[in-house]
Design a protein that fits this description.
Helix content is 0%, strand content 40%. The chain has 206 residues and is mainly beta. It is elongated and about 70 Å long.
Amino acid sequence: MSDRWQQVGAFGHDLALAVRLTDGVAGGRPIGTPSVRVGGVDEVPSRNRSGYHLFFDLPPTSVTVRVDGGAYYRDASRTVDVDPSNPTYDPGTAEEFVLEPTPAYSFPSGLTRVRGQVRQSGQPVSDAEVSVQGLPGTVRTTDTGEFVYVFADIDHTDVDRDPNTGVRYVMPGNAHPVFAVTWPNGGFTQSVTVRPGRLTSANLTN
């Protein structure tokens, strides 16, 4: 070793947690700038070339992972065990968050979806669950009661054509989709006319 350089010690860090964020509509990496933090920890995660958020040297306990979805996704959180004494703990297996889009998300054309607002007695209902009876998937309303529901799994058996007009409609179970809205203090259902491959605007009111 030259006189100019001297070894001052060795440094190393242990991977404690890897977090993967996935776009809930298109799959793959999310758009925008969602961020990941661990509650009670000041560390900003590193990101590798594959897009994983990496945390090192976390305390060996259960931690709360919080995702700030930015403009295009809803925030999310989850408790994760990073205790090495737990036999199921594996820092090499990523904790995946599938991010739910907000109404600001840039949806691809040709996607069947309903966008609207939930209102009760004229007032918007925030953080209400919105689903379609008989179909998978649940979304939550924003602070202003807005939502977007994507019909991700419909096929030709869920679409019927009006014999008089020739117009095609989404008809799971041979009926127009019935939206179910629930929140801690109430709920209701409402039928909505939806055309495939398009954006339908529909406010759900009670």
